Amino acid sequence: MSESEGMDAFAHLGDELRRALSERGFTTPTEPQRRAIPALADGRNGLVVAPTGTGKTETAMLPVLNSLVSGDGPPEGFGALYVTPLRALNRDMRERLDWWGETLGLDVDVRHGDTTDYQRKKQADDPPDVLVTTPETLQAMLTGEKLRDGLADVEHVVVDEVHELAGAKRGAQLSIGMERLVELAGDFQRVGLSATVGDPHEVGAFLTGGRGCEIIEVDVASKVDFEVREPEVTDADERMANELMTSPEMASHVRAIRELVERHDSVLIFVNTRQTAEALGSRFKELGANIGVHHGSLSKEARIDVEDRFKAGELDGLLCTSSMELGIDVGRIDHVVQYASPREVKRLLQRVGRAGHRRDEVSEGTVITGNPDDALEALAIARRASHGDVEETQIHHGSLDTVANQIVGVAMDFGETEAWHAYKIITRAYPFKQLPEETFREVAMELHRNRVVYVDEDEDTISKSGGTWQYYYANLSMIPDEETYDVYDMAAGRQVGTLDERFVVNFAEPGATFVQRGEMWRITNIDEDDQQVEVSPIEDPTGEVPSWTGQEIPVPYEVAKEVGEMRASAGDQFAAGGTENAVAREFTTRYPTDDYTARGALGQVSRQVEQGVPIPSDDRLVVEQAGKTIVLNACLGHEANETLGRLLSALLGQRTGSSVGIDVGPYRVELEVPAGVSADDVVDLLHETDPGHVEAILELSLKQSETLKFTLAQVAAKFGALKRWKGRDGVGLSRLLGALEDTPVYDEAVREVFHTDLDVERASEVLDAVQAGDLDVEVVGERTAIGSGGRSSGTELLTPENADASVVQTVKERIQDDRVKLFCVHCTDWEQETKVRRVADQPECPRCGSTRIAALSPWADEVVTAVRATDKDDEQDEQTQRAFRNASIVQSHGKPAVVALSARGVGPRNAARVINRHREDEADFYRDILEREREYARTKAFW
Hints:
Elements: H1 3-7, H2 15-24, H3 31-41, E1 46-49, H4 56-69, E2 80-83, H5 87-104, E3 108-111, H6 117-125, E4 130-133, H7 135-141, H8 145-151, E5 156-159, H9 162-166, H10 169-185, E6 189-194, H11 200-208, E7 214-217, E8 224-229, H12 235-244, H13 248-263, E9 267-270, H14 274-287, E10 291-294, H15 300-311, E11 317-320, E12 335-339, H16 345-352, E13 363-368, H17 372-386, H18 400-414, E14 416-418, H19 419-428, H20 437-449, E15 453-456, E16 461-464, H21 468-474, E17 484-489, E18 494-500, H22 501-507, E19 513-516, E20 519-527, E21 532-538, H23 557-575, H24 580-588, H25 595-611, E22 620-626, E23 629-633, H26 637-656, E24 660-664, E25 668-672, H27 679-688, H28 694-702, H29 706-718, H30 730-740, H31 744-757, H32 760-772, E26 776-780, E27 796-798, H33 805-817, E28 819-824, E29 831-835, E30 853-856, H34 861-869, H35 878-893, H36 895-902, H37 908-916, H38 922-940
Helix pairs in contact: 3-4, 7-10, 10-18, 10-19, 12-13, 16-17, 17-23, 17-25, 18-19, 18-20, 18-21, 23-25, 23-26, 24-25, 26-28, 26-32, 29-30, 29-31, 33-38, 35-36, 35-37, 36-37, 37-38
GO molecular function, one term: DNA binding
Protein name: ATP dependent helicase, Lhr family
Family: Belongs to the Lhr helicase family. Lhr-Core subfamily.
């Protein structure tokens, strides 16, 4: 298209639209409008890829509105659907489209889960011309008798934030939903609105089912400007650290962000997790900074309140998570701060792209980093973003629970239909074009066995059954059905907030700490029956990240590889005699940063060169060992390293019959191995393991993981095989796995875990490269500066069924290294916290000489308080009684009682049972403890 044609884009619209544009003050089209409106006004399918704030909504809707008011006017039914992934966008779009509707004489309405029955009936009886809705509500609409009549008139479907949907099962479900809509309305125009993606043609194919699609992509890279910096700690930061009870480094981050907010009018501050938002928000609150907090765990009312206050200029800054990545209108942004590496190029572009957007204005963003890994990663991402090197979208191809869900949908649509007809509808959708017919039939038969639909194999038909209606409306969404746990401060007798079930199942245990509502809490107990997490407040004197940091955004392979290239480049310069200042200055010519940040980022590389050990890079793996810790330094990103870590853990576990702990990040895999395992064993596995066997080995090891069981339960619900489940019931989930192992339910659960967490193809390529000599592997017999540089959150212990001796030894060492609070219940004047291994054979109070010493968890302050507050003659509450029973066991049995009481989930009653078995062999004593822990885990699932 020529420039003159582009500038004349509004000429492709009719007189009514042009008059409305003039009234609205739209005199010159934005770049997306200039380039897209001619094609869209011509009725073609289109994908508009542009930053938020560039008029994308009007780009899509002006041609749609023009079509509705042209000719004979809008149809009797729904003329256009505007599908958004968030209800917040529903509200935002309604406000933006209402003016156009009123001006053009079109009826615009919103429909989602909270729409009143009265409004729903009104929409069914008299459909609006434009309906703003969600993917899930569209699923419900497709089955309503009157609504289906209205949907038969649909001529346009606009899908907002299509990049978010393309990589999720929600999007896979929507893609089939649109094909079901085709059965009613015939082919309709499809328009997608997307943030920057690496493969727009793939997203366009997802949107249209492979039909033709115009790609209108606005160049974002040339209109963004980044700076990556690590704030230098000042004397003022030292003073602020004391005031905030935090570290000087954290204080410098808070100060740097506050300065950026003060220098600009309206600043978004993005963080990667809700917990970080809460932690930073609490510190800004202490300082009285005019900065709000916005994330998905807040109530709808709280989110709307801060959105409105920020848009009105009442707040100077808004601290937010990905909740603000999508196009919620909060007014003009003039700067974006990204706290810590954004992890992905597309995420940085999307976030910083929210700033600016006046004509020819550059969007500006600052990334605040805090450690070498983080800084190098942010620099790599900023450079890649400036060059438009964006990650590709991982479309959810072939998800079988989505197929199951939509087979039921087709049965709801038609009552009864031929199996080939349902298959044809589903495989028109792009994510399911390669779905084998045999697999489709297996899924249908699984639904038949679960009495969700009826399959007549003789007639080859699928029809509704008694359970169809109930299943369908209980499963309108492909978002996993998870419960929430109420968080209670038991001392204050009040509810603090809520936690997601997956969060609790995977990470919660007594002693774990997290931040909520700007305060830090320690878990004291988890009540499964009432679904409560009981907590006690604690102070955060060090400012360290709490033990729960939320789910990490995975770092892609391409970003991690560039970090490896940066390390190699700097390592060569240091080895050639370059000084830190000189190498840092050279880096500032290639990356958007300053000397101080570059020196900090490259410090590990400099120290590693001084050590005289090889640098892990894009073409070298370095394996190092210190004691029982082996680290595989590999610049491969989260998913490939997660795959290699699980592979090595499984193979080492099979060889030794022992547990192998793994901790994975984008640049290293840390293994906690039993005695006798060396770094050379890891290298041997890299050289010997058949790359073609990676997937099979991992699937076998997954059977021992809670991740697969949790995913299996969620998938089973989508197949109608499970109505509801208790997420932490280990016995139930294990039985479920056994019952479903040879079904499509199990196949989909495995596929889901592989799709979400692992990269088998990349890990296999790494093994190929190692074995072909294209990727060096070197062994270092000590911990290195880079290898010690970072740990991710959460270690999963994969325990082979035949583990015995080494497991017992691991349990012993773990308990001996645990901390215990000794407390004299006789005088109540003495308490001491120490490691279990340092406890005397018969603990004794140094104040009164009593041996009635309770062995408590280090955070059991409330127990001590309760005992001290109890008069000897008063009736004792249960908590106090347990403390006295605890002390009686320690008085009778000494240190063995302390060991047993320090085990996970082993209270006084079980500790007494273990001790009273009078095991002479110490290993048998720890085996009994381990069995009690396992029994506890089967009902509580946290140790």
